[in-house]
Each structure stands twice: as structure tokens, then as C-alpha cells.
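# nightly structure sweep
# worker-07 picked up a monomer target from the shared queue
# config: single-sequence mode, recycle default, output format = C-alpha cells
# input follows
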Amino acid sequence: MPIKKNTNIDILVTEFNEKGEAISYHDKIKIITNGLLPDEKATVKIIKPGINVGFAKVVEITKENKSRVTPKCENVSCTGCTLLNAEYSYQLEIKKNLLAGLYGREMQFNRGINIIDSDQYAYRNKVVLPIGKRNDEIIIGIYRRNSHDIIDYKSDCVVLNKRMNEIIFKIKGLLNHITDTDILEHLFIRGEKDGYQVGLIVKETPTQIKNILNDLYKNNADITSVFYSISSKTNSVVIKDPVFLNGDKFVKLSTSKGSYKVSPSAFFQANIPTLNKILDNISEIISKTEPKRILDLYSGCGVLSDISGIDRTCAEINSSAFEFIEDTKSKFITADIAGLSEEIGDGGYDMIIVDPPRKGIDKTSIDAINKSNAETIIYLACDPKNQKRDIDLLTNYELVDLKGYDMFPNTMHIETLAVLKRK
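# output follows
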């Protein structure tokens, strides 16, 4: 029997999906609820009924998971950190179970699934936040899940460092004193100890906003670059043709292996301490296998393969990734990876490193890798499910190691590093 809207029901959470949503069942109807943990009991209100699936919100938790904690974040309505209400050790257990569900059978030969921990707070070096207006006041925050309703940051975001939070609130205050705020879309901040780059994504060429960015640069020594970018008018935020108003056209980011000048449109991992752990792992693999030539696909700035003395080629579709590269010994190719089948198959590489976008490796490249002479594949992924699909398609290789890295604590995201050897 269908459940009516606004009906209160009692549920027991039996599952937790990859989005961090609590799953329960009521009269064989799946109920999806945010804010609950596995094994919790709660009274919930149905907000969107369905024949097979319904959505609900929490009215009262009647039995808490023993690992539930009070979130340190004061932005209580923010839905960005879905696991912030769980002890950190329990967060890692949830992610370990998620990977075990995908890879359990394949990992029987090994010591099992391992999740490498991270700093739980203040770990991000980049943030892109929507800007809006409510009651004639500028709001900057995060979109409420499954909507374009902006949840305004009233206090510091716990996954950003103190300085990034200060910049957010400084800009919010400055924007409240101008009139052309209707053209604002997003705020961009990236940086760490070597300085910060600040940009605004706007609908059209700004006037007063230029003055705000220039003043921000002149009055803050650690803001080393300011720019604006005209919106791409898509659902995803793309920094296209940034117009630099002052300072550098890049921001400096440093890992344990090197320092990089990163343009606002280039990809770079958002959690450098955890990236350093991944780089240590890759370095160890390379030292053991001693490859003569490495091909780094979807390379970004070439961070993963940046090891002294290695003959490497980096390939990336986004030309801005290589804009400030100072390495004169490596080869850099700007191209769609799907169009590099000949390079992949006949380039004479004995190791291939891949770090594709969330959707995974394109089918053409999968086929080319299968036909290549590479003995080792190192596959870093931000979506384990798509990574597992790709590994199953790499039929000439077998999985020999897998590690999970908690690149984004307090969320359901997992970064996974898989090592494959030719059969």
C-alpha cells in the first residue's frame, strides 16, 4: 500500500548506500533518508512518496548508532559532509565495507581492504561555492542536496583552513556593499601556505566586482592572484578563459615530491597531505618495478609520475595543466585521451598510470591499454564503482593490490589506488 505524503512512520536503517543515504524498508517500499546511520531507529516524515521508493526526513532518532557524534560544524543544515555525524573510525569502517562489497572476492589473496586515514578537518586546498542573495543580503555556501537552494555559511566550514574561511567571509562582506550582485554565480579559492588565488565566476563582465578583487589583492599579502571568469552556463562550474586582474596567473601548490604552478582551470588534488601518501605508494611501486618508460594518462599537472630520473610522457586534454610546467626533460601531450590509441599501444611504455575523471577510462583507451606492452598499470580513481568496471574490462591484466585513501573525510567519497599486472 503506497505511503501518503507527510505521513510519519517508524524505520530501522538496514543499509547505507554510496551517497551516504540511509536505506530502510516499510511494507516493502524502500525509504531513503539523509542524516541517519546504519542500525539506527527513527521516526521520519514522508516528503516524497512513491510506489517502490519513497523519500523521508528525520523527525526523531529513537535509537542512535553507538558511533554517532555531535558534528563540530555549526552550519547545521549543510549537507556537504554526510558522515560528519559519525566517529572518524566509523567513517573509515563504512568506506572499508563499501570497497569490500565491490572488491571482496578479488582481494581474498591479499591482506584485505585497507583505508588510509587522513586529517579529518581543514584538509582542502580548493573550494568553489555558489553565491546568491536572500533578503537583500549576500549568501555564500553550498547547494542543498538535490536542489539549487543555497545553504548560507553562517560559521567556518570545518574542512577548510582558517584562512580560507576568513577570505569567504571577507568577500561576503565586500559584496554586500555593491549593486551589480545579480551577475554573481560562484566564488573560487585555491591555495595553501604559498598563497591563495581568488576568483569570481560571473554571468557578464563585471564593473564594481573588479574593484573588490583588486582591493582584496592589494590589502592581503597572502592573496597572490585574483581573476574573474564568465560563466560557461552549464550545470558544472568550469573556469573558462579567466581574466586576471592582479598578481600571478597561477597559485603555487607543493607536495612532498615537488612544487607546482597551478592555473585556476587545471586539476589538482584537493587534499595534499593524503596526496603525499599516494605519491609515496606510487614511488614505492616504481622503485620495485623499475620501469624504463612511463605513460601518465589524464595526468593533470603530471604530479603522480613526477619522479626524478624517470622517462615519462604526460597526456591531458586540458592544456592549462601544462601551462606553467618547468620540466624540460619530460614529454607533454595535450589531447583527448581517446585519440591516443597509437601512443598507448605502440609507444613502448612498460608502465601506464591513469587518473581519469569520475566517469572512468573511456572504452577506446581501455582497448588500447589491453593491447599495449605495459607490464604494470597504476589506476587512481575517485569513483571505485567505475574503477571496478574498468578493471573488469582490462582483461589482459589482473588486480594485485588495492588501497583506499580517505581523500575527503566526512563524506562518502573514496580515492582508490589499484595496481594491475599483465597476466
